[in-house]
Design a protein that fits this description.
Length: about 200
Amino acid sequence: MTTQPPAPPRHSLFEDLQALLVAPLVVAFAVLLFRHAGLLTGGTTGLAFLAHYGLDLPFGPAFFLINLPFYFFSVRALGWNFTLKTFIAVALLSLYTELLPAHVTFASLEPVFAALMGGFLTGIGLLMLVRHRASLGGLGVMAVYLQERRGWRAGHVQMAADVAILSAALLVRDPYHVLLSILGAVALNFVIAVNHRPGRYAGT
Protein backbone atom coordinates (compact mmCIF):
# COMPACT_ATOMS: atom_id res chain seq x y z
CA MET A 1 0.00 0.00 0.00
CA THR A 2 1.48 3.28 -1.11
CA THR A 3 1.08 6.36 1.04
CA GLN A 4 0.42 9.77 -0.40
CA PRO A 5 3.30 12.21 0.07
CA PRO A 6 2.48 15.08 2.44
CA ALA A 7 1.14 18.24 0.83
CA PRO A 8 3.90 20.81 0.28
CA PRO A 9 3.87 23.70 2.76
CA ARG A 10 2.22 26.87 1.56
CA HIS A 11 4.13 30.13 1.41
CA SER A 12 3.57 32.35 4.42
CA LEU A 13 2.25 35.90 4.10
CA PHE A 14 5.76 37.21 4.78
CA GLU A 15 7.23 35.02 2.03
CA ASP A 16 4.60 36.22 -0.45
CA LEU A 17 5.21 39.85 0.51
CA GLN A 18 8.98 39.61 0.01
CA ALA A 19 8.44 38.13 -3.45
CA LEU A 20 5.98 40.87 -4.38
CA LEU A 21 8.43 43.53 -3.19
CA VAL A 22 11.69 42.08 -4.51
CA ALA A 23 10.73 40.48 -7.85
CA PRO A 24 9.39 43.73 -9.42
CA LEU A 25 12.58 45.49 -8.30
CA VAL A 26 14.71 42.86 -10.06
CA VAL A 27 12.64 43.27 -13.24
CA ALA A 28 12.75 47.07 -12.90
CA PHE A 29 16.54 46.93 -13.00
CA ALA A 30 16.26 44.84 -16.16
CA VAL A 31 13.95 47.48 -17.63
CA LEU A 32 16.55 50.12 -16.74
CA LEU A 33 19.20 48.13 -18.62
CA PHE A 34 16.94 47.72 -21.66
CA ARG A 35 15.90 51.37 -21.67
CA HIS A 36 19.46 52.69 -21.33
CA ALA A 37 20.60 50.46 -24.21
CA GLY A 38 17.57 51.31 -26.38
CA LEU A 39 16.19 47.76 -26.26
CA LEU A 40 12.80 46.22 -25.48
CA THR A 41 11.22 42.84 -24.86
CA GLY A 42 7.95 40.96 -25.37
CA GLY A 43 4.65 40.91 -23.49
CA THR A 44 3.01 43.96 -21.99
CA THR A 45 6.49 45.16 -21.02
CA GLY A 46 7.23 45.27 -24.74
CA LEU A 47 3.99 47.16 -25.42
CA ALA A 48 4.99 49.71 -22.78
CA PHE A 49 8.39 50.05 -24.45
CA LEU A 50 6.69 50.66 -27.80
CA ALA A 51 4.63 53.43 -26.18
CA HIS A 52 7.77 54.79 -24.53
CA TYR A 53 9.89 54.86 -27.69
CA GLY A 54 7.15 55.66 -30.20
CA LEU A 55 5.02 58.13 -28.25
CA ASP A 56 7.57 59.36 -25.71
CA LEU A 57 5.36 58.22 -22.83
CA PRO A 58 6.93 57.42 -19.45
CA PHE A 59 7.42 53.67 -19.18
CA GLY A 60 5.96 53.16 -15.70
CA PRO A 61 2.52 54.74 -16.24
CA ALA A 62 2.29 53.19 -19.71
CA PHE A 63 2.98 49.72 -18.30
CA PHE A 64 0.40 50.17 -15.53
CA LEU A 65 -2.33 51.39 -17.89
CA ILE A 66 -1.69 48.75 -20.57
CA ASN A 67 -2.16 46.01 -17.97
CA LEU A 68 -5.57 47.22 -16.75
CA PRO A 69 -7.73 45.38 -19.35
CA PHE A 70 -5.94 42.09 -18.69
CA TYR A 71 -7.14 41.79 -15.09
CA PHE A 72 -10.49 40.64 -16.48
CA PHE A 73 -8.79 37.58 -17.98
CA SER A 74 -6.79 37.09 -14.79
CA VAL A 75 -9.88 36.92 -12.56
CA ARG A 76 -11.72 34.57 -14.91
CA ALA A 77 -8.79 32.20 -15.50
CA LEU A 78 -6.77 32.32 -12.28
CA GLY A 79 -8.93 33.82 -9.53
CA TRP A 80 -8.92 36.86 -7.27
CA ASN A 81 -5.92 35.90 -5.14
CA PHE A 82 -3.65 35.59 -8.17
CA THR A 83 -5.09 38.79 -9.65
CA LEU A 84 -4.56 40.84 -6.49
CA LYS A 85 -0.94 39.70 -6.20
CA THR A 86 -0.41 40.45 -9.88
CA PHE A 87 -1.93 43.93 -9.52
CA ILE A 88 0.47 44.68 -6.66
CA ALA A 89 3.46 43.39 -8.64
CA VAL A 90 2.50 45.45 -11.71
CA ALA A 91 1.95 48.59 -9.63
CA LEU A 92 5.31 48.20 -7.91
CA LEU A 93 7.15 47.56 -11.18
CA SER A 94 5.55 50.71 -12.61
CA LEU A 95 6.71 52.67 -9.56
CA TYR A 96 10.19 51.17 -9.41
CA THR A 97 10.92 51.87 -13.07
CA GLU A 98 10.22 55.56 -12.50
CA LEU A 99 12.29 55.76 -9.29
CA LEU A 100 15.38 53.75 -10.27
CA PRO A 101 16.87 56.23 -12.79
CA ALA A 102 17.34 58.70 -9.92
CA HIS A 103 19.49 56.15 -8.07
CA VAL A 104 21.34 54.27 -10.83
CA THR A 105 23.29 55.70 -13.76
CA PHE A 106 25.58 54.05 -16.31
CA ALA A 107 28.78 55.64 -17.56
CA SER A 108 29.03 52.83 -20.12
CA LEU A 109 26.70 49.94 -20.97
CA GLU A 110 27.47 47.48 -23.74
CA PRO A 111 24.19 46.67 -25.57
CA VAL A 112 24.83 42.91 -25.88
CA PHE A 113 25.48 42.68 -22.15
CA ALA A 114 22.34 44.75 -21.47
CA ALA A 115 20.27 42.38 -23.63
CA LEU A 116 21.56 39.22 -21.94
CA MET A 117 21.59 40.51 -18.36
CA GLY A 118 18.21 42.20 -18.81
CA GLY A 119 16.75 38.94 -20.11
CA PHE A 120 18.27 36.89 -17.30
CA LEU A 121 17.06 39.29 -14.60
CA THR A 122 13.56 39.43 -16.06
CA GLY A 123 13.44 35.63 -16.09
CA ILE A 124 14.58 35.48 -12.46
CA GLY A 125 11.97 38.04 -11.39
CA LEU A 126 9.20 36.23 -13.22
CA LEU A 127 10.22 32.92 -11.63
CA MET A 128 9.96 34.48 -8.18
CA LEU A 129 6.44 35.70 -8.94
CA VAL A 130 5.27 32.45 -10.53
CA ARG A 131 6.40 30.47 -7.49
CA HIS A 132 4.27 32.76 -5.31
CA ARG A 133 1.21 32.53 -7.56
CA ALA A 134 1.57 35.95 -9.19
CA SER A 135 2.79 37.43 -12.46
CA LEU A 136 3.38 40.71 -14.23
CA GLY A 137 -0.02 40.37 -15.85
CA GLY A 138 -0.79 41.12 -19.44
CA LEU A 139 -0.55 38.83 -22.42
CA GLY A 140 0.58 35.78 -20.46
CA VAL A 141 -2.60 35.87 -18.39
CA MET A 142 -4.73 36.31 -21.51
CA ALA A 143 -2.93 33.33 -23.07
CA VAL A 144 -3.88 31.15 -20.08
CA TYR A 145 -7.48 32.36 -20.33
CA LEU A 146 -7.66 31.52 -24.04
CA GLN A 147 -6.17 28.10 -23.37
CA GLU A 148 -8.84 27.34 -20.77
CA ARG A 149 -11.78 28.81 -22.71
CA ARG A 150 -10.85 28.17 -26.35
CA GLY A 151 -8.30 25.37 -26.14
CA TRP A 152 -5.56 27.51 -27.68
CA ARG A 153 -2.06 26.59 -26.52
CA ALA A 154 -0.94 29.35 -24.11
CA GLY A 155 2.67 29.05 -25.23
CA HIS A 156 1.69 29.52 -28.86
CA VAL A 157 -0.46 32.55 -28.07
CA GLN A 158 2.32 34.13 -26.04
CA MET A 159 4.88 33.41 -28.76
CA ALA A 160 2.67 34.91 -31.48
CA ALA A 161 2.12 38.04 -29.38
CA ASP A 162 5.85 38.44 -28.71
CA VAL A 163 6.69 38.00 -32.39
CA ALA A 164 4.14 40.70 -33.27
CA ILE A 165 5.51 43.08 -30.62
CA LEU A 166 9.14 42.58 -31.62
CA SER A 167 8.19 42.98 -35.29
CA ALA A 168 6.40 46.24 -34.48
CA ALA A 169 9.59 47.36 -32.73
CA LEU A 170 11.08 47.90 -36.19
CA LEU A 171 8.84 50.97 -36.42
CA VAL A 172 10.56 52.63 -33.46
CA ARG A 173 14.02 51.01 -33.26
CA ASP A 174 16.66 50.07 -35.83
CA PRO A 175 17.17 46.40 -36.86
CA TYR A 176 20.33 46.03 -34.76
CA HIS A 177 18.56 47.00 -31.53
CA VAL A 178 15.60 44.79 -32.43
CA LEU A 179 17.94 41.82 -32.93
CA LEU A 180 19.51 42.49 -29.55
CA SER A 181 16.02 42.68 -28.06
CA ILE A 182 15.30 39.24 -29.49
CA LEU A 183 18.54 38.03 -27.86
CA GLY A 184 17.24 39.36 -24.54
CA ALA A 185 13.92 37.56 -25.05
CA VAL A 186 15.80 34.31 -25.73
CA ALA A 187 17.81 34.79 -22.52
CA LEU A 188 14.58 35.37 -20.56
CA ASN A 189 12.90 32.25 -21.93
CA PHE A 190 16.05 30.19 -21.36
CA VAL A 191 15.92 31.00 -17.63
CA ILE A 192 12.22 30.12 -17.46
CA ALA A 193 12.58 26.89 -19.48
CA VAL A 194 15.49 25.55 -17.43
CA ASN A 195 14.25 26.54 -13.97
CA HIS A 196 10.47 26.22 -14.16
CA ARG A 197 9.51 22.58 -14.65
CA PRO A 198 6.41 20.89 -13.19
CA GLY A 199 7.14 18.77 -10.14
CA ARG A 200 10.50 20.32 -9.33
CA TYR A 201 9.21 22.97 -6.97
CA ALA A 202 7.12 22.00 -3.97
CA GLY A 203 6.10 25.39 -2.59
CA THR A 204 2.61 26.82 -3.24
